[in-house]
Amino acid sequence: MDKKYDVIAIGMGPSSVFMAYELVQLKKYKKILLIEQGKRVEDRNCPLEKLGKCIKCKPYCNITSGFSGAGAFSDGKLSLYNEEDDDIYVGGNVHDYLGVDATKKLIDYADSVYLKFGADKHLEGIEYKEEVAKLKAKAKKNGLDLISIPIRHLGTEKAHDLYKKLEDYLEEHGVEMLFNTCVDDLIIEKGAIKGVKARNVLNNEEETFKADKVVIAVGRKGANWLVDICEKHDIQTEAGVVDIGVRYELSDEVMKDVNKYMYEGKFVGKPGPFGDKVRTFCQNPSGFVSSEVYDNDLNLVNGHSYKEKKSQNTNLAILVSHHFNHPFDKPIEYGRNVAKNLNELGAGNVVVQRLGDIYRGKRTWEKELTTNKVKATLKSATAGDITFAIGYRTMTDILQFIRSMDKVVEGFANPENLLYAPEIKFYSNKVSINENFETNIKGLYSIGDGGGLTRGLMMASASGIHLARVI
Ligand SMILES: Cc1cc2nc3c(=O)[nH]c(=O)nc-3n(C[C@H](O)[C@H](O)[C@H](O)COP(=O)(O)OP(=O)(O)OC[C@H]3O[C@@H](n4cnc5c(N)ncnc54)[C@H](O)[C@@H]3O)c2cc1C
């Protein structure tokens, strides 16, 4: 017999976990089911560190799947906001639906939950107001905006512990959690959601779960699946955006001021001649470059940093936003093709190249990395030539941006700095939702990164809390 629930959520990333947490507080629903294709948080581990290479864990990458989603191995930088700002600059678009003040309140609440479950009380980026103002002015002179907001840094190892406590809490409070289970399809009748079809990924047994309220919280990992599902069931979407770029690694010494004053500086510009938006994202002082595997074995680069274990390098993403409308309107597909070509060039791995080699018009060789001043922290990356696969437009945007950054942070364009690719953020397609995050299908909701609403831990968590309150 099919099992019936009040609410079912697909995925157990921060958006879904915080939704379930808030539903427990509200005590309105008794039968809540979360379905996740990956493992429990305590069973997740990435062999990359031990083996020195990514072995493409099956059936799912441990970095992107499992309880707490991409949050478990993330650097755990919780982006807050400035009291005085009349906009929210980081983490996604929740404020477009709820307004800035309501979103700030949600962030405060989500932050209080993170603190309750053990987040560090210390906030980065609030001490050095004068120094930050000077950096902002210097950035402005060189055509860049510098966004600085307070950040609470969990650190990768601490994030794991915190999410374990949340997992225990939800279980103790009666939330049912099904792991190693992939939702393959939605059951929709006469424009309303009725349930989901799921499959145990270990034994392929299929099962149907019924509910009049289903929440899509599949993160970037599920973005591809979501595109197909939206097409199949006529779930409305809007033209999305894909962010394509590189993970940039340079010495802590060069980045010391930005690291000290802000921990994470978010620089944004629109360099010529294309005027595309280029931004830095996910800066990790004394951090490590990492890789993660998406559908069809796509190997993407990322980065994180620990609270205790330190490298001598800072890494950050440099991302270019690309829109496609007519006649081609498939940003996810475009991004996948770029990633696929790069993975082929890297024999299945991420490719790394020195900035100076790009200027010299040559590939980077393995032996050159061993004597390079900036030592690569992602050992599994293949030395090569990223310019074979990244389009002229994207590459020009990135190089121009690096030149502008060099005028703000001396040494940013050091020829020994490293560019890893593909760094791609699959946020699109954007699922069309109303202010209750409900889609055009009655009872079907979309939260977090997967449907393009959010782009970070804090905003994903906030979106889940809001949904719990309005559902
Ligand atoms: C290495 C790394 C570092 C990061 N660092 C930061 C950071 O410092 N700060 C920050 O704000 N953000 C960071 N992020 C991004 C952040 O982790 C995400 O924004 C956040 O986790 C999004 O939450 P979510 O709930 O939307 O989705 P996710 O966390 O992506 O979770 C979605 C879950 O859904 C599951 N799923 C997908 N499809 C299905 C299906 N069909 N059936 C069942 N389950 C499914 C997936 O397995 C996954 O577990 C980082 C991400 C990575 C990978």
Give a short synopsis of this structure.
With 471 residues, the chain is α/β, with parallel strands linked by helices. It has helices at 14-26, 48-51, 94-98, 100-116, 129-141, 156-172, 223-233, 252-262, 331-345, 355-360, 366-371, 392-408, 457-470; strands at 3-4, 7-10, 32-35, 77-79, 144-147, 151-153, 176-178, 181-189, 192-200, 206-210, 214-216, 237-238, 241-251, 266-269, 278-284, 288-294, 298-304, 313-323, 351-354, 382-383, 418-426, 430-431, 444-446. The structure holds flavin-adenine dinucleotide.
Write structural notes for this entry.
The chain is α/β, with parallel strands linked by helices and 471 residues long. The protein is 32% helix and 25% strand. The chain has an 8-stranded mixed sheet with strand order 5-14-15-18-13-21-19-20. The mean pLDDT is 93. The structure holds flavin-adenine dinucleotide.
**Mean pLDDT across all residues, rounded?**
93
SSE class: alpha/beta
Give the helix level as a range of percent: 25-40%
Uncertain stretches of 5 or more adjacent residues: none
CATH superfamily of the largest domain: FAD/NAD(P)-binding domain
State Rg.
Answer: 21 Å
What profile does the largest beta sheet have?
Answer: 8 strands, mixed
Our estimate of the beta-strand percent is: 25-35%
Q: Please, how many helices? A: 13
Order of strands side by side in the largest beta sheet? 5-14-15-18-13-21-19-20
Q: What fold name goes in the CATH topology slot of the largest domain?
A: FAD/NAD(P)-binding domain
Task: Please state the overall shape, judged from the principal axes of the Cα atoms.
Answer: globular
Distance from N terminus to C terminus (CA atoms, Å) equals 26 Å
The top level CATH class name of the largest domain: Alpha Beta
Extended strand count: 23
